[in-house]
């Protein structure tokens, strides 16, 4: 099987017979065959030699042979593609294909090449080719196709906002099936950005369009929409519905591609994640271990899809409590992904972030911080300081720094401020991750007694919560209570009363005015009125607190006695001496029939002293 024989066969063969030729001979070739025959016409040296010698026809033939391989991608023969690559080592990852595009007429067949380059994760070469094609004068349909590939590149690089900007331009100009495809694309991109409402809008719009399209949809369409709806519902914690969609996706994709196809396996991954969230951890671990073997068989160990499954298995093992096994798995993912993609790829950053989380749970704080700082440095260089993924890393770094014996509080506050302000600007005040960042920043100020900074911050969170949840929602009531306690710390009794009135009113309506959850709001209302110099009002709310506490116990425990002591002092200040006397009398009557502890006796002595005074 020499070079001339192979070339003659290629020139005279149909696509189908060529595919069969590859299938029959790929695994029969020896290393000597690789060197002496096929590799000579597809390596950079062979092609560039022809170009430098002005042998453009020969260069064209070399690249046409590349197309024979890429046709396997179009025919969904992905396993065969990688078998061919591994056996023949046909194309080096740094081949300068873009320099040869205009000699070959490749613009007529470029999608085959681009699909192939994406599939084998050669992103730099992919971008090279794409940039060159975009600089050529192509037909309008070709330009639209190139936009699609540019979106794919943005997506692979984590540039989701840029991808969305391109896709949104198409929405107003399409109908039916093309519009449904665009909605799916947008739904997936918004899913990556954790903008779940927008993702849901587009995915449901796509599902509705698919349901009303006259043409018969293939299993791939239905498998794709069910898979993405499964991912959405999983992120929304609607696990029963997510389970249904992933199961349907597996059915459709198995029917269309078979149970060993990577798309079917992808949906199996999603189902395993849902099973884990529903408490079936052993099933999830077993499924992932099986999927890793299948992905390694199809793609090899050094492929992003294989590494993604290993990454997910590490997370499941981590959450199951086996931190050392999870760390070893995740360390392999990090090292292999750097070898495959380089240290500047978003997948590598995700793997390093997951490793940092494991370090943090193992209380290896210095190593966790080092991981976060390494990722953050590269993200800032490539994505910018305000990128959403960059903000996530900043948030995790800030919260991990608090575990140090001497935390750098200025840096922590600066990071948390930046995360909150940028999420507020980019995602809006009512987005869930904005609330998380805002809550953490508020907690940081509370921990360091920064009540002046915390007050306006809590006001902003209250307004956002009212917009998101309504004025009577328990979350909004909780925001009022946080603000009330902050005002008490600032000795601002009147504002504390205003917010506590809302809390007490809503709790009384929703829970009843003697519910245990009202004891502390009553207590804090009494504190506020005492600050305002209104002891009678303070005594009124101390009594309400006492009434609730005495309902919870049949004994004079320390909490009840302490509440009574403060209540008596409020009554004395209000001049209600007779009321105080009757309360003291009832207390000692109860004490006479109870087994009083030493701590309780101390409170009784204080009450007796208060009464005598």
Query: Based on CA inertia axes, which overall geometry fits?
Result: elongated
Mean pLDDT: 77
State the helicity in percent bands. Answer: over 70%
Low-confidence stretches: 1-108
Largest sheet: none
In terms of structural class, how would the helical and strand content be classed? mainly alpha
Number of helices: 32
> Radius of gyration, Cα only, in angstroms?
34 Å
Our estimate of the beta-strand percent is under 5%
State the total count of DSSP E strands: 0
Cα(first) to Cα(last) distance is: 113 Å
Question: What's the layout of helices and strands?
Answer:
Blueprint: H1 3-12, H2 15-25, H3 31-36, H4 44-52, H5 56-74, H6 78-88, H7 101-104, H8 110-119, H9 123-134, H10 140-156, H11 160-168, H12 176-192, H13 196-212, H14 219-235, H15 239-257, H16 262-277, H17 281-299, H18 304-319, H19 323-341, H20 346-361, H21 365-383, H22 388-401, H23 409-427, H24 432-447, H25 451-469, H26 474-489, H27 493-511, H28 519-531, H29 535-552, H30 558-573, H31 577-592, H32 598-612
